[in-house]
Amino acid sequence: MRREPLSNIELEKWADINDVQRNGVLIGTAEDYRGKAIFASLQSESLNEDKALITVPQHLVLSLENVWIYAKSDTQLREVLEAVGDFSRTSRGAILIFLLLQVANNSVPGRNKVSVSSPWMQYVNVLIPENKLPTFWTEEERALATGTSLEAALDAKLRSLDREFTHLSQSTAPIPWWNAALPDLSFDDWKAVDSMYRSRALDLPGTGHAMVPYIDMANHASGDETVALYDTDPDGNAVLILRKGKSLKDGDEVTITYGDDKGACEMLFSYGFIEDRMTSARELFLGLDIPEDDPLRLAKKSISRSAPGFKLFESEGSISWEGEFVWLICVNEEDGLDFRILQTIHGERELKVFWKDNEISQKSNFQDLLKGEHLWEVFHLRAIATLQGRVEQQLSGLEKSKRSILSMDAVNTVGPTYNNIMKLRELEEKLLLQAYEDFEKKVSVSGKVFGCDADHMEQKNELLASQVVQNYLAFSNGVQELPVEDDFT
């Protein structure tokens, strides 16, 4: 659906009409590709942390609660919200549907409105992302991300958006006015409102995930470069205030942080850019699958409630990881893992998981359970071997895809999208190499012994030096029996 973007002057008029209070700030245009921004328009002594730079009335804040308040007087909005069921009971679901109807309201001059007019009907025209988000990349641009963690994340996101749009279309099909009022509604429209939400939503104190007009024009800057903070005042209004110790002079840009701890992949995925000053990927997620030859593969996949993979992240100069799914891969029936189909009190059959005849609840932390075992070092070594094998696979994919990138036409290798993707590749490769080296210090035995895909390991070190691991290796090679633990029962 077609939209005409608001100019800076029109946006200031919109703010005046809707009682958005500004104290020495206004909307301008950043010199680089970041587009609209908030700038100081007074000398520093006129601006301090005691008075809000911007105050947005509570009713303008687009939250789950306020969407349903709008729906009380907007029967068409309420009809759509109720039609999609549980999805509209989430902040994201309710807000996306609200935005979609606002976009439809002003997409074609003269068309009948599909919902009651609101201040957001005009404001959505300013929410066209300045940086093209990955969900709108061309096939050539997506090819540049091959081998990065963004490749899998983007594929998963597009599949999820497609499922949501299909659900929306099917749920609204029985609504008489829907198809007649929105004949040109497309998947791109759904991607557009998702981009608005993903790139603009704030975790507003006291409210949760919400969109805050005008304040959401503030660009990102991390660390000491962050100038202002968003908050909620005692009356429930959203406010933007100066950070303590900060001052502004005329023409200075007013920035907020989108999250100092967010990794390079998440920044590019959600906001369409990677900060120039970012020198590390910070974190990344790698997917894992249970090996095809694992006899408990289907049962493990059925009961797993964690993401199928693990997160690598920087921690005190080295690379750490977390991922409950990894531990499920690295233990099996001979270790004490078991699955049983039990009958519930309602007569239904349910798959349950046991560790050494003790049922494991969904709230249990499997890693903590394994830590209490005599063979903890063995299980730990299996996990590290699995991680290192997956990291090596990711590095190999990055290296192979470099050749394709080098053969691309020059027209595809210019502009901010290309620069951001190439920076992501560089930062992720750096983190992966460090992770591989850190894991190499902890593992060095064959995958055959430990039941993991790690037959490439060669070094001897920390975990291998453990007496428990040495005993296990001797037992696996038929040299001796495992020592019997003392029984104090």
If you had to describe this structure to a student in words, what would you say it looks like?
- This protein has 489 residues and is an alpha+beta fold.
- The protein is built from 17 helices and 16 strands.
- Strands 1-4-9-8 form a 4-stranded antiparallel sheet, with no helix packed on it.
- Helix 2 packs across helix 4 (91-105) and helix 14 (376-406) runs antiparallel to helix 15 (416-440).
- It is globular, with a radius of gyration of 27 Å.
- Mean pLDDT is 86; it is low at 445-460 and 482-489.
Summarize the structure.
The chain is α+β, with helices and mostly antiparallel strands. 40% of the residues lie in helices and 14% in strands.
Tally the beta strands.
Answer: 16
Q: Into which percent range does the helicity of residues fall?
A: 40-55%
> pLDDT under 50 segments (min length 5)?
445-460, 482-489
Q: What's the tally of helices?
A: 17
Strand order of the largest sheet: 1-4-9-8
Average pLDDT level: 86
Query: How would the global form be characterised?
Result: globular
Proportion of strand residues:
5-15%
Distance between the termini: 72 Å
**Sheet having the most strands:** 4 strands, antiparallel
- Which structural class do you get from the secondary structure elements? alpha+beta
Radius of gyration (Å): 27 Å
Question: What is the fold's blueprint, element by element?
Answer:
Blueprint: H1 8-17, E1 21-22, E2 25-29, E3 36-40, E4 54-56, H2 64-73, H3 75-83, H4 91-105, H5 119-123, H6 139-144, H7 149-172, H8 176-181, H9 187-200, E5 202-204, E6 208-210, E7 219-220, E8 228-232, E9 238-242, E10 253-256, H10 264-271, E11 283-287, H11 297-303, E12 309-315, E13 318-322, H12 324-329, E14 337-343, E15 349-355, E16 358-359, H13 366-371, H14 376-406, H15 416-440, H16 447-450, H17 467-476
Parallel strand pairs: 7-10
Antiparallel strand pairs: 1-4, 2-3, 3-10, 4-9, 5-6, 8-9, 11-12, 12-13, 14-15, 15-16
Helix pairs in contact: 2-3, 2-4, 4-9, 7-10, 14-15
